[in-house]
Design brief:
The protein is α/β, with parallel strands linked by helices. 41% of the residues lie in helices and 13% in strands. The protein is globular.
Length: 254
């Protein structure tokens, strides 16, 4: 029996770091260095005789690239500047896929500040519009599919609280991530979703205030992070083991 580890990399910024840690006791985290996600994976390994190893990485970093992890940025690093060498010190997909069997990536909540589309769209634009996002996501999909031995898990984007956005932008965010689920994501490939946007909004337009640090801080609070961490690990394990067939997009058992 081959018991070599299934290596997983989780690319994130602050919202992802919150879920990564969950609501772990500070003393336990200090002693073990492990938050809820790692601890839940350890439990899964022990219970199911699996050997999953997950690592987290801030991506992209503040230096040199800049603290931006939106559709343009993944397109820019992984498609436009693809290759075997880092781009502004950030690993390309060629580099990541050579080491990891599962690559997970996400966007932080400014991704939901989506402006109205202009008369033209531009795949090379950093302007946050649905039209630009769709071009960048479609290019990413084609790129991800060139690594068929790697499973990719994409989080639908983090939402904003009502106090930190407006109805028009929030409606566009919901429209885009609905498109990601209903059109962009296709069966029988190596790309999977975890529906973080739906968890945060419960089908509405905004991160629910009781899930946020406070109405003016769209980072999820620790209670929500602990809840999300369990569903994240559930979805992750199901994707590895069953191609995601036994959970819904939120990670709940079917």
């Amino acid at each position: 029996m081959n018991n070599s580890p299934t290596k997983i990399i989780f690319l994130h910024h602050s919202t992802g770091n919150g879920v990564w840690k969950g609501n772990v006791n500070k003393l336990i985290f200090k002693l073990t260095g492990k938050g809820d996600v790692e601890r839940l994976i350890d439990k899964h390994n022990k219970r199911n005789n699996t050997n999953y190893y997950i690592k987290e990485l801030s991506f992209p970093k503040k230096e040199l690239y800049g603290w931006k992890n939106y559709p343009f940025d993944y397109y820019n690093i992984w498609v436009k500047n693809a290759g075997d060498k880092p781009y502004l010190n950030e690993p390309t997909l060629e580099m990541l896929a050579s080491e990891y069997s599962v690559i997970i990536f996400k966007h932080c909540y400014p991704v939901s500040s989506i402006k109205a589309d202009s008369n033209s769209v531009d795949i090379n634009s950093e302007i946050k519009t649905i039209g630009n996002y769709k071009l960048q996501y479609n290019a990413l999909k084609q790129k991800l599919r060139t690594f068929p031995a790697t499973k990719f898990i994409v989080w639908t984007g983090a939402a904003l609280t009502r106090a930190k956005t407006n109805e028009a932008e929030a409606t566009r965010a919901k429209e885009f991530f609905s498109w990601v689920k209903e059109t962009w994501d296709e069966a029988d490939d190596n790309i999977y979703l975890w529906d973080f946007f739906e968890l945060e909004t419960e089908g509405g337009l905004y991160l629910k205030d009781n899930y946020a640090v406070n109405p003016n801080n769209p980072h999820p609070n620790k209670k929500f992070n602990a809840y999300a961490a369990k569903l994240f690990v559930s979805r992750l394990a199901d994707i590895i083991e069953n191609d995601g067939q036994t959970t819904n997009l939120k990670g709940e058992k079917r």
